[in-house]
From TrEMBL:
It comes from Setaria viridis. PANTHER family: PENTATRICOPEPTIDE REPEAT-CONTAINING PROTEIN. Keywords: Repeat, Transit peptide. It comes from the Eukaryota. The lineage of its organism: Eukaryota, Viridiplantae, Streptophyta, Embryophyta, Tracheophyta. PPR repeats lie at residues 213-247, 314-344. GO terms for molecular function: RNA binding. This is DYW domain-containing protein. InterPro entries: E_motif, PPR_At4g14850-like_plant, PPR_rpt, TPR-like_helical_dom_sf. One of its GO terms (biological process) is RNA modification.
């Protein structure tokens, strides 16, 4: 083994959890692992998949300090592989990686599972790059059998890291051992190149496959969808429907996610009809994708109908509906849904984020405070997004001192978004001193933010500090900073119309402005009636 790799192995860093799961299951023998998992009610494999998400980046080398989720994986190995493999695992856990490599150079057994599993204990101590090089080295020495599932799992690990070099090494190895024509490996290559942003290479692999399956099609469709290339994505989906391979639940979830991102409501409805016809309407993750699509495309009623028809709602189902209500300004619905959720499933950080976001937009200070407190009582550590919602909520309500105090007590450094929220509130409520501090803090984090420079200059101007105004303007000019032009779009009749600020070039812009004037007059009239009808001596009307 090269000396520079040995030095890397002595760092004792661990690889991310998902890679551990994929490679461990590959070394188990996937079919036997899944079969055992089914017999035990999804059993230890399922628990390992969930718990491994919590693996830290580093751990102590002591045997006593191995976390429980690491022991769970070992228990899983023992349960599946039997006594002989258990002895191999125990031996390998106590050996040095270099010794492990040399011992495997001449395998004494032809048992593929037992031979391959011996790589697993050492792999949890080293980086993914080291692991991939180890796999290549063992293949070169003949230390492990040529198993397509192992190499496909290694490609998935490369995709997680977005490491093109490691993937290139593995692809060369695939050609060498004759697995380049395998459907399993081909699909893994497509997914790898797609996730690394190399869609042309992914498409070449797809076209070069003599046999394709649903996973191959879905991997490429997903790649184009994630890269926001709508036309190739839909073209492939149409070709897939006329091929021997039919869409599955993952394919439909991918298409619905694309429709969500691009507000293609009509297309989404059409595809939903197809997936119902093919019998995928009972799949929870497909329904979850539909909830997000309808909510973000403005049809909250259809999103609610799908949510209510899900027989066994999971965490994503509840969170998707909470965020749907939040995006439509239905704060009371969010709060009530969170209460219902607590009766069935434990909320997570995302659940509370959705409720806090709705409270922020509705300026429900009391409910927002209560939600923030309950989240902490659930043992959930607030993240930057939670703090951002609370600062914005308090700032909109004019409670700037409380917002400032909350920032000072944060368990992590505030980011530019938090300072920006406080700055915007200071402008609205005329708090110049706090606003200037917020602007200066944000500019330390985001010195190229033109909007913050403009807001800071306006604050200085409001108190007559013209020299400071000139200084800020000079900095903007020297750095060439300009504010971004506002942009919005809407889909009408299967056509997307875009609008930018101060752009009067659209042929129908005069019609749009006329309608806006009409709406403005209507709202002014309603507001005047409301004000005239208030009893100003009644404290219930003045809050």
């Amino acid at each position: 083994m090269p000396s520079h790799l040995v030095s890397h192995f002595n760092n004792h860093s661990v690889i991310p959890a998902l890679a551990v799961v994929r490679l461990v299951v590959a070394y188990f023998g996937t079919s036997s692992a899944l079969e055992r998992s089914r017999k035990h009610g999804r059993g230890k494999i399922h628990n390992a998949l969930r718990i491994l998400d919590l693996i830290p980046t580093k751990h102590h080398d002591d045997e006593e300090d191995i976390p429980s989720h690491r022991r769970l994986i070992n228990d899983c190995m023992y349960d599946i592989l039997g006594v002989q493999s258990k002895r191999n695992v125990m031996r390998k856990r106590k050996e040095d990686f270099v010794n492990s490599s040399s011992n495997q150079a001449r395998p004494k057994s032809n048992d593929m599972v037992s031979s391959n599993i011996s790589v697993c204990p050492s792999m949890t101590r080293f980086t993914k790059d080291d692991l991939l090089m180890h796999i290549v080295e063992l293949h070169r020495r003949g230390g492990i059998s040529s198993d397509a599932s192992i190499l496909a799992s290694a490609l998935s690990s490369c995709a997680d890291m977005k490491t093109l070099t490691g993937g290139a090494h593995l692809q060369a190895l695939l050609v060498k051992v004759g697995y380049d024509s395998s459907v399993l490996v081909g699909s893994a290559l497509i997914s790898f190149y797609s996730r690394c942003g190399q869609l042309q290479k992914a498409h070449r692999v797809f076209q070069g496959m003599t046999a394709k399956n649903t996973i191959s099609w879905t991997a490429l469709i997903s790649g184009y969808a994630q890269d926001n290339q709508v036309e190739p994505c839909l073209h492939l989906f149409a070709l897939m429907r006329h091929s021997m391979c039919k869409p599955n639940d993952i394919t439909f979830a991918t298409i619905f996610s694309m429709c969500t991102n691009h507000a293609f409501l009509a297309l989404g409805r059409s595809v939903q009809g197809l997936q119902m016809k093919m019998g995928f309407d009972s799949y929870v993750h497909v329904s979850n994708a539909l909830i997000s699509m309808y909510a973000k495309c403005g049809s909250i009623g259809e999103a609610q109908a799908i949510f209510e028809n899900i027989a066994c709602k999971d965490l994503v189902s509840w969170n998707s509906m909470i965020f749907g209500y939040s995006q439509h300004g239905l704060a009371e619905h969010c709060i009530n849904l969170l209460k219902q959720m607590e009766e069935h499933i434990i909320p997570d950080a995302i659940s509370f984020l959705g409720v806090l976001s709705s409270c922020r937009h509705a300026c429900l200070v009391t409910e927002g405070r209560r939600c923030f407190r309950v989240m902490i009582e659930h043992g959930i550590e607030p993240e930057l997004d939670h703090y951002s919602c609370m600062v914005d909520l308090l700032g909109r309500a004019g409670l700037l001192d409380e917002a400032w105090d909350l920032i000072q007590t944060m368990s992590m450094p505030p980011n530019g978004v938090i300072w920006g929220s406080l700055l915007a509130s200071c402008r609205v409520h005329g708090s110049v001193s706090i606003g200037i501090q917020a602007a200066e803090h944000r500019l330390k984090l985001e010195p190229s933010c033109a909007a913050t420079h403009v807001q800071l200059a306006n604050l200085y101007a409001s108190i007559g500090c013209w020299s400071d105004v000139a200084r800020v303007r000079k900095v903007m000019k020297e750095r060439g900073l300009k504010t971004n032009i506002g942009c919005s779009w809407i889909e009408v009749g299967n056509k997307v119309y875009t609008f930018t600020a101060e752009n009067r070039s659209k042929s129908q812009v005069n019609d749009v402005l006329a309608i806006l004037d009409c709406l403005q007059s209507h709202m002014d009239h309603k507001y005047d009636i409301l004000i005239d009808g208030l009893d100003w001596d009644d404290p219930e009307h003045i809050k």
